[in-house]
Structures are given as structure tokens and as C-alpha cells.
Amino acid sequence: LVTDEDELRAIWGDPDRREAFIQRLADLGYDSDRLDDMRRLIDAPNSDIFDVLAYVRFTLAPMARSQRVQSAKAGGLDGYEREMRSFLEFVLDKYQYEGIRELAAGRLADFLRIRYGGVNDARRLLGNVDDIRRAFVDVQRQLFSQ
Q: Which pTM was predicted?
């Protein structure tokens, strides 16, 4: 399904492409239960499915979600204003504890509602919706770039 590690990273760093890829895996018989079984087989219970796929396909050592988050926070949030950094850290923390479903494109509105009460309030503090979405996607690219 992927030709190299960079292609897998590009897919996994983009929420829309990742969701389509996960659906394609499910259509081929690799649903979430089967992927979770694979995660247990390679002894990576706190890793992302990305790490399972990268290990199976490219023999890359799995990385725990907490390590990914720590690395993204250390190097991927520079250049954002304080409030946007705080919001992105909130998103990353949700991913660390709950997993990849938290990074789905549809979760962005939920995060804005949880954190700010709604999209309008979030826009006042974070900027326009396009900028918020761009930051949400960019932090995911950073998350899977290492």
C-alpha cells in the first residue's frame, strides 16, 4: 500500500489521507481489532498504529505515543502564539492518552468546543478557522516526521 517510509509518514501526518488509508486497510481485512492484535504481537502497546505499520513494512523500531508527543512539543510548536501552542498541546495530550482517533479531522470542532466553548470563541483567541486547521494538521505532520 505504500512504497516507502516517507510516503507512510506523509499519509499518517494528514488526517484526511490517514482516515482514507485506515479505511482501505479495513477493507482489506485489517480492521482496528486486527491492527491492535498486531500492536500486541510486536510488544508496542503504547504506540500508534503508524508504528505497527512502520515496523512490519520497514522494520522501524516502534515509538511510544508519549515519546512522539514529547518530541513534537519540543520542536514542533515554535512559531505559534502562546494560546495556539496551548491549544496544540491540549490536542497532543488527548492523542497521547486516547490514540490516533483524537487526531481525526472531525475532532477539531470538538476540541474547540471543549476548550473554548465554541468555534467563534476559539477564533477570537486563535485566529481564523483556516489557520486553526492548518496548525492542527501541521502538528500532526511534526508528530510523525521523526
A: 0.91
